[in-house]
Amino acid sequence: MENFNMSRNTTFYALGLSYKKADATIRGKFSLDAKAQSILLVQAEAEGIESLIVTSTCNRTEIYGFANHPYELIKLLCENSKGSVQEFQEVAYIYKNQEAVNHMFRVGTGLDSQILGDFEIISQIKNAFNQSKSYGLVNTFMERLVNSVIQASKKIKTDTEISSGATSVSFASVQYIIKNVEDIANKNILLFGTGKIGRNTCENLVKHTKHEQITLINRTKDKAEKLAEKLNLVVKDYADLQLELQKADVVVVATGAQNPTIDKAILNLKKPLLILDLSIPKNVNENVTEIEGVTLIHMDHLSQMTDETLENRKRHIPAAEAIIEEIKEEFSLWTKGRKFAPTINALKAKLNDIKNSELDFQSKKIANFNEEQAEIISNRIIQKITTHFANHLKDENTMVDESIEWIEKVFKIEALVSK
């Protein structure tokens, strides 16, 4: 397998955990809010990590970066989240070099999303990249890789129908409400949290239920007011949460809080209540189910719902994978060229040293020695030799690392590798 250790002493890794093996509770332990991500990046810089990006969404928390050993990155994650190394080992994945590159392409293009074709993750990768760049934690390799993944994501979205049709966690939550709540038009719905998922859910509720009995609550009231104004809905103060919970028939929770904000202590119910928790970490305590009439549905349950839209999307996977392979091949050619270019330059310099030494010797030994003509011929020979080596290194069947090592050993050269 080809190595991407551009600095010769580190390896490129992708590691983390996702919905595939980690349930919402475990994902919540390893989730990183904006503050935790910033602290992690500062720590990474202090510990000498040359390049790293970190993403934390509802469905996954991941680190892509260079390290001598993956534990350096695992340590950063565990020290800045509530998760332990043991818990990480039970549910996590670790990829390196080409497998790590492959993973980022699949994640960034929606093929690894909990709901196939959900492209929200690419904006998370962009944000993570920009944040790392502001800390000086992006090398040329990482920049080229992220840009290639963004390019693949755009092309798949444009050239295939893998993201066609409305399907997302917010859409699935609305479908669940419609299917499971009778007479929805006359029910009271409370939406707690107006982040991206909350906004999307609210818009879907208005669109698909043609429902105006929706109340919004958000810790920051002005955010809720902006959404309410757009959709002509009612906004209540955060202080009114307990009162509004008593009035509601359906509650959708989509906050960014790190600890549960709703538990059975604040519920004083006189009628059945459906609660949908779309938050990671979970924002509704499991103890609410101890109250008779309360039904609690988590994001993972909603994400497992399949419908005709998702089945249609699956037909476009081969086309999406073909686009990924095309752009990945371009990236692979770039990494090969970037890897062996310093060696070819060092080889050319070595041959030029030999040439200059020999021309100097011959000019003193041979009468009427034509140094100008010898210079032209020698330069052409050097160019042909280095071109042969470069073509060998470009060949897809060439083991680049071994070949570079052999060239440097034979010609006694040491290439300077830029980051």
Low-confidence stretches: none
Mean pLDDT: 86
Helicity range = 40-55%
DSSP summary: helix tally: 16
Q: Biggest sheet, strands in spatial order?
A: 7-6-5-8-9-10
Beta-strand percent range = 5-15%
Query: How are helices and strands ordered from N to C?
Result: EHHEEHHEHHHHEHEHEHEEEHHHHH
Structural class by secondary-structure content: alpha/beta
Q: Give the quaternary arrangement of the chains.
A: single chain
What is the alpha-carbon Rg in Å?
29 Å
| Strand count | 10
Q: Which sheet architecture does the biggest sheet show?
A: 6 strands, parallel
3D architecture notes:
By secondary structure, this protein is α/β, with parallel strands linked by helices. 53% of the residues lie in helices and 12% in strands. It has 16 helices and ten strands. It has helices spanning 24-30, 34-46, 70-79, 85-91, 98-108, 120-134, 140-159, 169-180, 196-209, 221-231, 241-247, 299-303, 308-314, 317-365, 371-394, 400-410; strands spanning 11-18, 52-56, 60-67, 93-96, 189-192, 214-217, 234-236, 250-253, 273-277, 294-298. The protein has a six-stranded parallel β-sheet, with helices on both faces. A four-stranded antiparallel β-sheet has the order 2-3-1-4, sandwiched between helices. α10 links the parallel β6 and β7 (234-236). α5 packs across α7 (140-159), α7 (140-159) runs antiparallel to α14 (317-365) and α14 runs parallel beside α16. It starts with 10 loop residues before the first strand and ends in a 9-residue tail after the last helix. The mean pLDDT is 86.
